[in-house]
């Protein structure tokens, strides 16, 4: 059961970033404008998209899981602080807490790794 739950957890965490990255491509101008309104240079959007898509796929497949989890945890924490810190807005507070929960999931992956059903797990067995 642990092997399956680790795989499912990675899929749940990773798919958020893969989907979000592709949605940023389809809504590029709006996302860029939102970033700039929050004080983040819009020219960083291609890097954000690459991080989300590549990082998300890395988590799903279990490739370099501890390292990628560290990067995505820091990214998610930074996004919470920059984009979701208006606690007078209940939706923003919920988004902030969602990001904290995702960061916690990545911290577990940093501590325990991807599990058996992963590229990392295969490389350890080989």
UniProtKB/TrEMBL annotation:
Short name of one Pfam family: DoxX
Keywords: Cell membrane, Membrane, Transmembrane, Transmembrane helix
InterPro entries the record matches: DoxX, DoxX-like_oxidoreductase
GO CC annotation, single: plasma membrane
Cleavable signal peptide: none
Keyword hit for Cell membrane: yes
Transmembrane regions listed in the UniProt entry: 7-23, 43-63, 70-87, 99-119
Location in the cell: Cell membrane
Major localization listed first in the record, in broad terms: membrane
Taxonomy, superkingdom: Bacteria
Keyword Magnesium: no
Topology in membrane: Multi-pass membrane protein
Family, per entry: Belongs to the DoxX family.
Protein name: Putative oxidoreductase
Source organism of the structure: Nitrosomonas ureae
